[in-house]
Amino acid sequence: MRCPYCGNEDTQVKDSRPTEDSSAIRRRRICNACGGRFTTFERVQLRDLVVVKKSGRKVPFDREKLSRSVYTALRKRAVEPERIERMISGIVRQLESLGDVEVTSDQIGEYVMEGLKGLDDVAFVRFASVYKNFSAADDFRSFLAELGNGKSARHEADDD
């Protein structure tokens, strides 16, 4: 594993333990050249997923991009990091278990919306505003009115 501080490839594992939900192995490492300490995570990957964008372009699935999107929606919200990581791992498992190597960006967006709805209402609306491309305050009002009427995000996507 390459040291993030000096780029040296000679690093040593000092401690390994499973994460809270046992979905990954957390490894504390030390660089033998500069002495820098850092953490890496090792996860099971069932298959290499490809995301099909709305434009038709295909890109490799990036768990870190998914994670950044979720954490952006949850910024300054009081949700435990373990719950967030469990949600992200659950989304990845759902995508991998679909049986197809290609997944659409819409599928990913729907899974994220489902997960956020169970974690935090504000983050759910924040993510929806970007995912559904809200352009005016009326878009928010309509979305919140539909939520208030009990209409789920999954049904709303089917109406488009």
From TrEMBL:
Keywords carried by this UniProt record: ATP-binding, DNA-binding, Metal-binding, Nucleotide-binding, Repressor, Transcription, Transcription regulation, Zinc, Zinc-finger
Zn-finger segments (unnamed): 3-34
Protein's UniProt keywords contain Metal-binding: yes
Domain ATP-cone positions: 49-139
Keyword flag Cell inner membrane: no
UniProt xrefs under InterPro entries: ATP-cone_dom (IPR005144), NrdR-like_N (IPR055173), RNR_NrdR-like (IPR003796)
Ranges of Basic and acidic residues composition bias in the record: 11-21
Pfam families: ATP-cone (PF03477), Zn_ribbon_NrdR (PF22811)
PANTHER family named among the record's database cross-references: TRANSCRIPTIONAL REPRESSOR NRDR
Family: Belongs to the NrdR family.
Protein name: Transcriptional repressor NrdR
Organism (species): Paradevosia shaoguanensis
Species lineage: Bacteria, Pseudomonadati, Pseudomonadota, Alphaproteobacteria, Hyphomicrobiales
